[in-house]
Amino acid sequence: MQPVNIGIIGLGNVGSGALDILAGNAAAIEQKLGFPLKVVAICSRGVDGKTFPSAFDGVLRTADWREVVNHPSVQIVVELIGGTTTAREILEAAILQGKPVVTANKELMALSGADLWRKSEPRVHFAMEASVAGGIPIHAVLREGIAADRITTLYGILNGTCNYILTEIEEHGTSFDDVLLAAQQAGYAEADPSADVDGFDARSKLAILSTLAFGELVSPGDIFTEGIRRVTPVDFEYAHQLNHTIRLICAARRTPAGLILSVRPSLIPQSTILAGVRGAYNAVWVRGEFGADTFYYGRGAGPHPTGVAVVSDLMRVAREMRQASGDRVSPFAHAHLEDYVPVPVTVHESAYYLRFRVEDKPGIIAQLATALAAENISIDAVLQLPNANWRNLPFVITVEPATEAAVRAAIARMAQMNFLIEPPLAMPIEKAL
Ligand SMILES: NC(=O)c1ccc[n+]([C@@H]2O[C@H](COP(=O)([O-])OP(=O)(O)OC[C@H]3O[C@@H](n4cnc5c(N)ncnc54)[C@H](OP(=O)(O)O)[C@@H]3O)[C@@H](O)[C@H]2O)c1
Fold first, then answer.
1. Atom nearest to 13 CA in ligand 1
2. Whole-prediction pTM value?
């Protein structure tokens, strides 16, 4: 059988992983497809300094992505460079030529994926499995596996760096700054960690997954986002006292008011399956009205897990091309997407964990309780671990379910209290898991 010819642009972590798989698993891929996938062009800025499996001797090597897109033999273009500028140009150029595209680019897909897809109709196939949760085939699950269900809730742990940092703090009592530094030195975290630790990477992934799950076109900017910088070892001590742990939870909930979306550190029960997700692993937990709960777990990143996602996309797209029916399945899992009307997270009701750091003196609890009572918030428990340092005393108040708006208003009332040495840290306590 004639091969389907591939051009790959971007030969870093994901690109090199995809090449390893295309070379090392070529026979099984051909057995599954009934025809081979053949790499005919590869591109990166520093391509000349790189070495490749011998299977790729003789393929076009170039630093200019246009040579790949314009190559007359290239039938599918794979974009693995990241970012939103050149990557967008690559996709637009490929689409213009009617060439299907495979990408791992969460940032670009979250911002403009649906737009690019619409513009590409009706000719071009499009695939982006690796853009969320690397090694977990969660797009395929939402697009096909549980497409018949009506999803009500989706929770994800979608950033491996954050999950690694949080579980290191939890297991070793190390501070956020020290774990981050060690992770940077070991190459697990970027030199500029903001996209990870401030929640922006997870936000792009949640935007993509909620669009697939709920059929509403969500933009990253629609999602309330808080990172993990303020989580400390003492928060894990208190969370454990409450039989909970802390994870950066990406949450999408269908409510009567609409879809409520957030990315934020949250307390989750230690008994929930999500609490067992440790280190750089990712997971997605989905509740459907008909099919109830399903759970997906695996590596969120890395050359080979992400490479598997990219090559599996290539196989699907190559099959669709061969079938030549003209029918395409949207990578966003819906023939038509509705507009998303953002629902502010402030209407969401939850129990909350409030952690204070104070200079100890009599009457503190009474003043904090007054601020909470003024917003109609009931205290559930007050927790204080033994601590000799009365000048920097951490303690926790948990409160009964209240709206985020009420909790924020109570915290605003507390701003004038001069015994607080930093603003209170508020995290929701997830009960629905
Ligand atoms: N890393 C993961 O595990 C992972 C997981 C899921 C999704 N993703 C996504 O996959 C994509 C790639 O990530 P990565 O980690 O593989 O990135 P990476 O290691 O930084 O590799 C990027 C590659 O793109 C090349 N490149 C950049 N700009 C280029 C340009 N203008 N022209 C030609 N080549 C260019 C680089 O070339 P030179 O090195 O030669 O300069 C490099 O080979 C991103 O969208 C990322 O978000 C990554």
1. 16
2. 0.96
Ligand 1 pocket test, candidate residues 81, 108, 131, 159, most atoms within 8 A of CB: 81
State in Å: Cα 310 to ligand 1 middle.
13
For the chain, domains (ranges, CATH) are 4-134+303-329 (3.40.50.720), 139-299 (3.30.360.10), 346-429 (3.30.70.260)
Q: Which tokens belong to 334? A: 């819906």
Q: Give the least confident one: 21-35, 144-158, 317-331.
A: 317-331
Top pLDDT among 71 and 388 is at: 71
Between 109 and 361, the more confident residue is 109
Instruction: Answer whether residue 116 shows pLDDT above 80.
Output: yes
Distant-in-sequence contacts of 117-122, Cβ < 8 A, 24+ apart: 117/330, 117/331, 117/332, 119/92, 119/95, 120/95, 121/328, 122/326, 122/328
**Structure confidence by residue, pLDDT tens digits, 20-37:** 999 999 999 999 999 999
> Which residue's CA is minimally distant from atom 44 of ligand 1?
82
Residues in contact with ligand 1 (CB, 6 Å cut-off)? 9-15, 43-46, 65, 80-82, 86, 104-106, 130, 134, 301-302, 306
Cα-to-centroid distance, 339 and ligand 1 (Å): 31
Residue closest to 202 by CA, chosen among 269, 254, 265, 146: 265
How far does the centroid of ligand 1 lie from the alpha carbon of residue 119, in Å? 25
Tens of pLDDT, residue by residue over 380-429, are: 999 998 877 888 999 999 999 999 999 999 999 998 899 999 999 999 99
- Report the distance separating Cα 284 and Cα 307, nearest Å: 19
The ligand 1 atom at the shortest distance from the C-alpha of residue 302 is 3
Is 25 exposed, middle or buried (CB count within 10 Å of its CB: 0-12, 13-18, 19+)? middle
> What sign does the dihedral 214-254-271-411 (CA atoms) show?
positive
